[in-house]
Amino acid sequence: MTYYFSVRNTTEIFTDSVDRLNWTTEYVGTVEPSPYYFDYNDFLEEIVTCNYGRPATIYLPALYSLLFILGLSGNVLVVWVIVAGMRLRSMTDVCLLNLAIADLLLLSSLPFLAHQARVNWIFGDTMCKVVLGTYHVGYYSGIFFITLMSVDRYLMIVHAIFARKMRTRSFGVLAAVVTWVAGLLASFPEVGFLRAQRYNNTVFCAPSFEHTSEDDSSNWWMVFGLLKMNILGLAIPLVFMTFCYSQIVRTLLSSQKSRKQAIRMIALVVSVFFCCWLPFNVTCFFHALELMGSYSSCNSSRHIRMVLQVTEVIAYGHSCINPMLYVFVGKRFRTQLLKLIGRSPCIQRLCQRSLVLPQVKTRSGGI
Known about the structure:
Elements: H1 7-28, H2 40-48, H3 56-86, H4 91-107, H5 110-118, H6 124-158, H7 160-166, H8 169-186, E1 194-199, E2 202-207, H9 217-254, H10 260-291, H11 298-328, H12 331-343, H13 345-366
Antiparallel strand pairs: 1-2
Helix pairs in contact: 3-4, 3-5, 3-11, 3-12, 4-6, 4-8, 4-11, 6-7, 6-8, 6-9, 9-10, 10-11
C-alpha cells in the first residue's frame, strides 16, 4: 500500500510549508533580525532539492516476483487439495479455501506492482482500478478470514457442544459470504478513487482524492484510509485473536490430555500475524501523522517512504506463510495431498514403469 505515498501528495506537504512561510515573511518582514533568524532561502533550497531517488527499482521487483511465485504455488496447492480431496466438508474447509483465494487475489497484483516499481504504470486506467481494487479486497478479506478461523477454533474447542450445530458447511458458506462483503466494503473509499496518475514523466496507479473537495481534504482522505487500515487490518483482528486463543489455551490447560503441540501452534499463529503486520501498520500510522502535518521534513519523509517499502514486503510474506501455517501442518491435509499426488497420471506411470522393469529383467535372466 505504499502508493499512498505519491509524489504529488508529498510535494503538496512541502508546498504548503512554503506558502505559510511566504505569508509570514510578507507580514513580519520588517522585524529586526534575531539570533533565531530563519533563512528562508536555505529552507526553499532544501525543499526544491528534496529527492527520494528510486532505490526500490533494484530490490522491489525481485522481491515481489519471489513472493508471487512462492505464494501462488502454495495457495493454488491449497485450493486444489481442498476442492479435489476434502470436498468442503466443514466450516474449517470453507475458511481455508476462501483464505487461499483471498491471498491469491492479493498476490495477483504483485507482478503489476513490480513493474510499476521498476519503471512506471503502463497498464492504463481500467487495469489500475481492477488490479489495485483486487488488491484491496484480497487484503481485507484475507485478514477477516484469519479472524473468522480464530472464532471457528474458539467455538470448536471452548464450546464444543454448541459448535456441532454451528460449524456446518452451510453455516461456513454463509459466514464466507458475509466476510467477502465485509472485505469489499472495507476497501472503500480507496477503490472508488483509483486511477492512473501522471506526475512529470512518471505514471503511477493510486487513489486520487484531489477532485473530491478543496484545501487539504485530499490528505485527510488518505489519513482516513491509513487509520482505517490500522483499525480494521490490525487492531480489531488482533483483539479477536487474542481473546479467542487465550480462551483456547485456558481450556486446553485445564484438560487432562497433553496439548503442548496445539498450544505451540496457537502461539506460532499469533506471533506470525503480529510480526508480519505490526511493522507495516505502525509505519502507516507515522505516515498518517506526516500527512496531518505533525512533521514535514524531507529527511523524515524519505525514511518513512523507505520503511514503508520494506515493511510492506514483510506483510506480503504473510500470504506465502498462510498455506504452511494453516494447512500443510494439518495431518488431514497432508493425507489428502499424498492421495491426490498418488492418483496423478505422472505418478501412476512412474509406478507402472517401476513394476514392469523388474519383470523384464527376470524374464531376460531366465532366457
